[in-house]
Design goal:
Blueprint: H1 8-11, H2 16-34, H3 41-50, H4 57-68, H5 73-94, E1 104-105, E2 108-109, H6 111-115, H7 117-136, H8 142-156, H9 161-170, H10 178-203, H11 208-235, H12 238-241, H13 254-277, H14 286-296
Antiparallel strand pairs: 1-2
Helix pairs in contact: 2-4, 2-5, 3-7, 4-5, 4-10, 4-14, 5-7, 5-10, 8-10, 9-10, 10-11, 11-13, 13-14
The protein binds geranylgeranyl diphosphate.
Geranylgeranyl diphosphate is lined by residues 54-55, 57, 87, 90-91, 93-94, 99, 106, 161-162, 164-165, 188-189, 229.
């Protein structure tokens, strides 16, 4: 079993990046087949926002988690596509002028810059039901379909992503505590990571307890991921990240609250906790362990 902690240098030699690329290609194909053909401006904008960009790391998490339970690959890639549609919707709406007002996303103009604001709103609106359509059309038992759709609806709704975004909008000018900021970022980022890892377990017919363990590990990992994202906003390389850095200088972030050293330490603690959650799965979770560590250390 690969145990804590792999050294970032060792991770560079791992085959994580090749596996990530293979999973990404499968998911890209599933997305390409699911998205409507670009016969209208709306459909063109949907394809523009979803295809040909993005690391597909949430997809990798569901795949890596599904490996523990030998879940059927074709269904895994379809659920991964649904998750990527939701993720893309959240990015399109987050980039809107009334939200984060971002001009660039995934190394190209954001959806509203390329297609206009009202089209970008409708792109997000259309991606959400498409994601649920995928889940409800899976070739698996109706129990699994309903479970996946129900859990995703909770993650996306007003107690999940939307709650996180609402908290984010409300923070301007206010001074959040570390706990409040962690809660907000957990809703924006962690819950979708949690869902991705849980969904692999659901598809693999894992027990309720195993599903819960994986969901919790995903949420913990999401916290560490968001902390490192804040760090990268200040110290990262714009070309590698795909959007301009130092955009969050006016905002309260983990970096402004903790400073770079403490931020890194806290982020590593969340990563460690996430990895410890995976212990019951022993070596079956090695691919997932490696994924969390490689993503944390941004190993290419
Ligand atoms: C409901 C409008 C609305 C938003 C919900 C999820 C969210 C809140 C906003 C998304 C924007 C954001 C900055 C989220 C933080 C998580 C994050 C770092 C997203 C980028 O994820 P990557 O790096 O992106 O996996 P790629 O492009 O690789 O898919």
């Amino acid at each position: 079993m690969v145990q804590l902690k792999l050294n970032p240098q060792t991770l560079k030699n791992s085959s994580f990046s090749q596996r990530l690329q293979t999973v990404a290609e499968h998911v890209e194909r599933a997305l390409d087949q699911t998205l409507p053909l670009p016969t209208s401006r709306l459909h063109e904008a949907m394809r523009y926002s979803v295809l040909g960009g993005g690391k597909r790391f949430r997809s990798y998490l569901i795949w890596a988690s599904s490996q523990i339970f030998n879940a059927p690959a074709q269904e895994v890639f379809k659920v991964a596509a649904a998750i990527e549609l939701i993720h893309s919707y959240s990015l399109v709406h987050d980039d809107l002028p009334c939200m984060d007002d971002a001009d660039m996303r995934r190394n190209k103009p954001s959806c509203h810059k390329a297609f206009g604001e009202s089209t970008a709103v409708l792109v997000g609106d259309a991606l959400i039901p498409l994601a649920f359509q995928i889940l409800l059309s899976l070739e698996t038992s109706s129990e699994i379909r309903v479970e996946l759709a129900k859990k995703l609806s909770e993650v996306v709704g007003s107690f999940g992503l939307v709650a996180g975004q609402m908290m984010d909008l409300g923070q301007e000018g206010s001074r959040l505590t570390l706990e409040e900021l962690t809660e907000q970022q957990c809703l924006k980022t962690g819950v979708l990571f949690g869902y991705s890892m849980e969904a692999g377990a659901i598809l693999g017919k894992a027990s309720q307890q195993e599903q819960k363990i994986l969901q919790a590990a995903g949420i913990l990992f999401g916290k560490s991921f968001q902390m490192i994202d804040d760090w990268l906003d200040e110290y990262g390389d714009e070309d590698k990240i795909g959007k301009p850095c130092r955009q969050d200088t006016e905002k309260l972030t983990f970096l402004s609250l903790l400073g770079p050293r403490r931020l890194y330490k806290e982020a590593e603690l969340f990563l460690d906790e996430a990895l410890q959650n995976l212990s019951p799965f022993q070596e079956k979770a090695d691919i997932l362990r490696e994924a969390l560590q490689c993503s944390f250390y941004r190993v290419k």
